[in-house]
Amino acid sequence: MHHFLPLRPQHRQRDFRPEVKKMNEHLLLDLATDLGYELAISGAETYRVEDSARLVLTAYGLSPEVAATNNYLIVSILSADRTPITRMRRIGFHGNNLDAVERLNALSRRLCAETPAPEIAAKMLEETRASVPYYSFPVVILGHFLGAGGFGLLFGCRPTDALLAGLGGILIAFVNRFASAMKTNPIFSTLAASFLMSLLAYGLGAAGVAANADTVIIGGMMILVPGLVFTNALRDMIYGDISSGIHKCVQVLLIAGSMALGSAAARNLTIQFWGPPGIAGTAAHSLGLLCFGAFLGCTGFSILFNIHGPGMLLCTLGGIAAYAVYALTLSAGFAPGTAFFVGTAFSALYSEIMARVRKYPTICYLVVSIIPLIPGASLYYTMQQAVDGAMDRFVSQGLFTAEVTGIMAASIILISSLVRMFLGRHKTNH
């Protein structure tokens, strides 16, 4: 499995090699389109989708034009007789399958190097798709439990409340599985999952079982925060795919709004039947316990992102280290913005290094290692204030969330640019 930086060189029109002339151009176009489509639905960044399709076709002597957005992929070539041929695929729900991204990325490199016959290349793509491992549902349940419970600790849950957050994560796993089987709209499934999870938390709070229902909810809600979409939005905008980046940001906001609406409905229902739940203050944990929470949370998300083998450990270690850097910077007296910048910079640098050492796409490391820093709680509170009609607090919280997001994006841009500058583009190209 190999890594490439998404460079977009201007390829010159090349004469067809004799062996390429004999190939079925339609099969080659289908191959590149299917490869890009599989990358897109697995959660790859927009530029990776475009570059993979473009570079494969270029390796066969063709001069393609490729355009991808969140919703569709268009690939066009000029045939040997200069006739334009175009394929378009509509892209539906974007998954969180980073193992597939790794394998498909490796395949694109192999196709560029070997240029096998189109029929053989198509078979290689099918074999790659079939080779992707998946976790069993019990393991996925464990991932939800660890992710929700671990991040519950990060957001101030007492240990017992963190366990309750983990149980909420399990509930979300079953709701998501049912919604997937029913092919439910992701926005509606998020609304349903957040409502049921929040109803459980507020009910436990009203019964005196949960000390702080809000932190239990936020821990569970991290499962619903679209971390991969958020990370890809930042990277798309970094590499000039502004429309795709904005589209993904809107998607994040819609999901956050669904989470807030579901939680608000559960809170109002709980108050109506059982009265307001008791809300204790958040717990002040030691750095060691917080890092343990990051370990649990990142391990859980590695499962949810379908990361296997040593990659899971390396992604988790990156998340722990990034959060520790953030926490130590904050405890040293620096402003929260500075702490987010430093923590994100460490995460981005770690991901770039690991990607080159193991020859995997950077996103496979970045998306997990940056998860502890994603302002999921802040985003949730922002949308909650809007639902509650507290516009002053909504504006204040929203500005803070936007500030943190901008700081994280700037940090990733800086590190990515420096890495490319010092290592050289030719060494990291596809």
List the helices and strands and how they pair.
Blueprint: H1 18-21, H2 25-42, H3 46-59, E1 65-68, E2 72-78, E3 84-90, H4 98-114, H5 118-131, H6 137-154, H7 159-181, H8 186-206, H9 213-221, H10 227-238, H11 242-274, H12 287-304, H13 310-331, H14 336-358, H15 363-369, H16 376-388, H17 391-423, H18 425-428
Antiparallel strand pairs: 1-2, 2-3
Helix pairs in contact: 2-3, 2-4, 2-5, 3-4, 4-5, 6-7, 6-9, 6-12, 7-8, 7-9, 8-9, 8-11, 10-11, 10-15, 11-16, 12-13, 13-14, 13-15, 14-15, 14-17, 16-17
Verbal overview:
With 430 residues, the protein is mainly α. It folds into two domains: 114 residues, no CATH class; 292 residues, no CATH class. Strand 2 and strand 3 form a beta hairpin. The chain is globular and about 75 Å long.
Structural class: mainly alpha
> What fraction of the residues are assigned to beta strands by DSSP?
under 5%
Number of domains: 2
- Helix share of residues? over 70%
Order of helices and strands: HHHEEEHHHHHHHHHHHHHHH
Query: DSSP helix count?
Result: 18
| Major sheet: arrangement of strands | 1-2-3
Shape: globular
Question: What integer value in Å does the Rg equal?
Answer: 23 Å
- Number of beta-strand segments: 3
Which features characterize this protein?
430 residues
Summarize the structure.
The protein has 430 residues and is mainly alpha-helical. It is built from 18 helices and 3 strands.
